[in-house]
Amino acid sequence: xxxxxxxxNISKTFTDFHGRxxxxxxxxxxxxxxxxxxxxxxxxxxxxxxxxxxMSGLEPKFSGSQIYQNDFSMKDCGFxxxxxxxxPWLTVEENVSLGLIAKGQLTNKKKAEVAELLKSFGLDxxxxxxxxxxxxxxxxxxxxARALAVSPKVIFLDEPFSALDSFTTKTLRQELLDVWRxxxxxxxxxxxxxxxxxxxxxxxxxxxxxxxxxxxxxxNTLARPRDSRSPKFFEMVDKLETLVRPSNAxxx
Amino acid sequence: xxxxxxKHHHIIYKNHWHMLVTLFLIILPxxxxxxxxxxxxxxxxxxxxxxxxxxxxxxxxxxxxxxxxWGLAVLFYRGRRSVVALPVFDVLQSVPTFAxxxxxxxxxGTNASTVIFFLVLAMIWPMLFSIISSLKLIRNEYQEAVTIxxxxxxxxxxxxxxxxxxxxxxxxxxxxxxxxxxxxxxxxIIIGIPSGLGPFFQSFSTSPKITMFGILGLLFIIFxxxxxFLLPLLDRxxxxxxx
Lengths: 252, 243
Prior knowledge:
Chain A is built from eight helices and nine strands. By secondary structure, chain A is of the alpha/beta class. In chain A, the strands form two sheets. A six-stranded mixed β-sheet of chain A has the order 5-6-7-3-8-9, sandwiched between helices. A three-stranded antiparallel β-sheet of chain A has the order 2-1-4, covered by helices on one side.
């Protein structure tokens, strides 16, 4: 298995309004392997979202080095946002097609693929609706479908389920796992839920805050499908709970 | 490339009653002005020519201002450029432009383009600032989504910047037109242009009654324009950006 993204000595400092410097990330070293489900886990303020944005290329200013696999670029990325970030003036279908529209690739073949994608997420009935008419869960399905539409190698997910209720979250986690298995893509997901991390991830990077540091990378070898009530699952939860330290400072 | 855009079903008239009221809004000012022309002993033709000429000047100035304001807003709403540009705009909008009117007459002459020029100066600022504020209100996640999916150039404008700026465009148009009514009468009177509403009011300055009725008539026009065009647009523009 080869690394699709390799980060060496990544640090990131923000300067606030008063000119004070704040270290969001300090000396991060990690690599994302092709095809894995990688989790960034940590309390709020540990810089996990910032790290995800650096990986995806959304945050171009940082120190350290980041190496992508030869033919990998931002074009091969999808991104799923915490608050969905669907453009409210575009229909569901247009939102899902956004990446294809941008690249001028919305051919008839691609249109059919989009239609297929909408159908697989149960969104075909809403294709011509606007996002505001959808429930939170359906909105995030649009978000995931939009990411998949560009046939990405990697999808970055920034707490994609934290704005949803627990029932919807459960279903969507399963749908995400199905997609991951069927398409063999690489997923990098930020979460603050230990249970979610164990349920989904192959490897879990535990981060701590002030400054944002990478503490451990845990291999999650539990067999799939994972039963969240099995003793081994609980063992893993206990292990992670001792590793994840809550942050005291309020910050990004 | 073509995207199947859903046709927005804009319902203009909610029911027959609504349509009648709207029609009434158009007919009422006309009847009022016919009556007014009788009372003031002027020909209907003169009256409507004056109104028409002023409206035309406003119309031209409106489109120049809105286009300029939108372009400036898109260019300067964020980044390092905005740090320099926004304070400059703020100072410029506070310049008492009418102070330069006599100067402008000297150099540009007493003609319609002088009127239009000053109308633009009066209208452009509220438009510019309301477009800038609606662009600044774009959520960061939208910017990021548009960046990650690679919208750039013309498509970025067509699918992102323009729709996001529509509420500001409409609000700016409403406030800008408000300023313009004031500006057009004042400018036309000050520079002494022979046609339009300014000279119309000036020629009746000796009769308080006719001046009052004239202002009332103007209010009818403004109200009708607002009710028929601007307020429905304002409603729609907000539902456009609602999540």
